[in-house]
Amino acid sequence: MEKSKILVQAVTPIMNRLNEKIKAIGLRRDTYLNTVFWFEANKLAEDLSGKCNSSKAREYLLFQLRTLPTTPVSITLDKDVIAAIDTSCAKINVPRDCFVNRVFFFLAAEAKHLKAARISIELLIKHATGELGVNALDNASEFLGDPFYELRCFMRGNESSLYEWEFFGKVEGLNCYLEDTSVPESKEHWDFDAMLSSI
What is the pTM of this model? Predict the structure, then answer.
């Protein structure tokens, strides 16, 4: 398979944690990410089917991502995988770096990070099989093909999906989709606030 490189502005603390986890279990980072991104690019399009960020939502996501400390990281992937990522991101109108960093977040996340993202660890563990934990890389041999299987089970139980689940605060730039009502200073945001105030 023909390879190519993509340059990503990776959120530094997330990337550092991800590199440590991958090194600890002896995986080749880019080979593993090639498998993950092939699967996740298709899941992004599936999870957000029929949805598309407005231009103001896209700009806001990119702005939020740029408020975080980032490091340029080069990743070697199959050209087909890069094309799948770009096609799905274009369909949703999400900056590629937002999608890539969201995948990195879930790969590197510990229980405390998931709790901060309002993901119930107790409910998540109920979905887990046997003695498996909540971190995808800790269970890499079991979940190489679908590293976020348990998270997806949790999200479905909450009538959401991995790429619909909204992050708030400092990590808003890791979202892949936002309604315009979630974009501060937009007319839709003010109209939504006004509607809530009138209730």
Answer: 0.80
Token pair belonging to 145: 């093909």
Distance of CA 182 to the CA centre of its chain: 18
Average pLDDT across the chain, whole number: 84
Q: What is the 3-state secondary structure (H, E, C) of 60-124?
A: HHHHHHHCCCEEEEEEEEEHHHHHHHHHHHHHHCCCHHHHHHHHHHHHHCCHHHHHHCCCCHHHH
- Does the pLDDT of residue 5 top 90, yes or no? yes
Alpha-carbon gap, residue 179 to 13, rounded angstroms: 28
In contact, 15 and 68? CB cutoff 8 Å = no
Single-letter code of the amino acid located at 30: D
Residues 10, 173: Cα–Cα separation, whole Å: 11
Cα distances from 13 to residues 6, 101, 109, 166, in angstroms, run 20, 11, 11, 20
Confidence of residue 157 (pLDDT cuts 50, 70, 90): confident
126 Cβ neighbours under 8 A, 6+ residues apart = none
Distance, in Å, from the CA atom of 31 to the CA atom of 78, rounded to the nearest integer, reads 9
